[in-house]
Amino acid sequence: SYELTQPPSVSVSPGQTARITCSGDALPKYYTYWYQQRPGQAPVLVIYKDSERPSGIPERFSGSSSGTSVTLTICGVQAEDEADYYCQSADSSGTYGVFGGGTKLTVL
Amino acid sequence: QITLKESGPTLVKPTQTLTLTCTFSGFSLSTRAVGVGWIRQPPGKALEWLALIYWDDDKRYSPSLKSRLTITKYTSKNQVVLTMANMDPMDTATYFCAHSNYYGVGNQIGDFDYWGQGTLVTVSS
Questions:
Q1: Tens of pLDDT along B54-103?
Q2: What sign for the dihedral angle of Cα A79, A82, A87, A88?
Q3: Residue A101: which of B39, B46, B115 has the nearest Cβ?
Q4: Chain A residues within 8 A of B39 when measuring between CB atoms
């Protein structure tokens, strides 16, 4: 079955830039979405359609793509950004959805 | 204001069928380009995409669970029901429902922009 691959963890100091990658063969064909999930809470959509930011999401969150990888970038990381982040897209035929394995962002 | 809430049993026995209901407000499943999906998350593990139903009754399922899942919409009641047959302890998870957007023929799997709080389902005898 189709998979999206994310690094298990990323660590940054406050004020630095965090980059979380997601790779998958079909990513150039379909939109990617990114979610933030804090412990005990439901996920929150932070990027949609590869690089669009929903209203209420800080400008420090951005999305980009390059070939079969997409990247969630958080500039000027704050302590409140510590959370799990998941990418989501479609399988190779666009038939069903898939989540990446998640990346735990630690703010040192 | 869009809200969603999951309801159903908190404990089911192995081999039983799970029925979960998502009751929502603030949108209608008769509106074009709107969908409702189900996602689950085992304790301490990653999100798993389960199923999605769109305004036009287009239904999508995870292939690994397709034989066990059924998603149905009740438009006039603002509800979406997910059934999962032959439950196993490995199905223990928090189950979320969420509002989805349809972005066109080339991107038929949309995002989830509004989520319910989730409901923990434990499978145990």
A1: 999 999 999 999 999 999 999 999 999 999 999 999 999 999 999 999 99
A2: negative
A3: B46
A4: 43, 99
